[in-house]
Amino acid sequence: MAESQASLKKRGSQMFELLRSHYPDAKCSLHFRNPFELIVATVLSAQCTDARVNQVTPKLFEKYPDAPAMARAKKSELEALIHSTGFYRNKAASLLKLSQALVEQHSGEVPRDLEALTALRGVGRKTANVVLGTAFGIPGVVVDTHVGRLARRLGFSRNKDATKVEFDLMKVFPKENWTALNHLWIDHGRAICQARKPLCDDCFLSELCPRVDLA
């Protein structure tokens, strides 16, 4: 029997409070000083750890501190700087096109609008919601691998498509908690609810978790 929406919301609220008490310092682990640096770092984080991205971005932003500077970059030089993040050719092309679009269409500034963000090269809903929530304080549900996995295991979504998971979570959790939820679930996914071997016996959410999709 499917869990009612009211039950999902109640369980979600209880989980949220437990997560917040266990991870009081949960926040975006990418290092950035402004929205441009965050959007670039988030593009680089695809199929790469945040720790690796944080090793790469200081030199990258020293050479290309803003969209106008990066828009003028040579692709080969960008590739060399971001090589260790993987898929560096595609990422370099995306960063060039993204920066050029910011200059040509947005006066070099990162827009505060989901539709405008997702129109940029290399920016999907996940990256757009990271930027909106973390840089601008505009709530959005970020569905990365951790959030998608936890959404299914904790019984809040049966979908594997990230956009469908995003909308499932939007129905359960209040808007003011969306950005914090992202950071809390990412921390929990790294610490406890790991992909290959979740530490269920050590999990403080065990009494609220249906433990689904653990295969």
Brief summary:
The protein has 215 residues and is mainly α. It is built from eleven helices and no strands.
Put simply, the count of helices is 11
Mean pLDDT across the residues is: 95
- What proportion of the residues is helical, as a percent range? 55-70%
Taken in chain order, the helices and strands follow as: HHHHHHHHHHH
Q: Globular, elongated, flat, extended or rod-shaped: what is the shape?
A: elongated
The assembly state of the depicted protein chains is single chain
Please give the largest β-sheet: none
Roughly how many Å apart are the termini?
21 Å
Low-pLDDT segments, ≥5 res? none
Q: Would you write up a description of this structure?
A:
- With 215 residues, this protein is mainly alpha-helical.
- Helices cover 58% and strands 0% of the residues.
- It has 11 helices and no strands.
- The protein has helices spanning 5-22, 35-44, 50-63, 67-71, 75-82, 88-106, 114-118, 125-135, 145-153, 162-172, 178-191.
- Helix 2 runs antiparallel to helix 8 (125-135) and helix 5 crosses helix 6.
- The longest helix has 19 residues, at 88-106.
- The radius of gyration is 18 Å and the shape is elongated.
- The model has no long low-confidence stretch (mean pLDDT 95).
Keywords:
mainly alpha; 58% helix; 215 residues; 0% strand; 11 helices
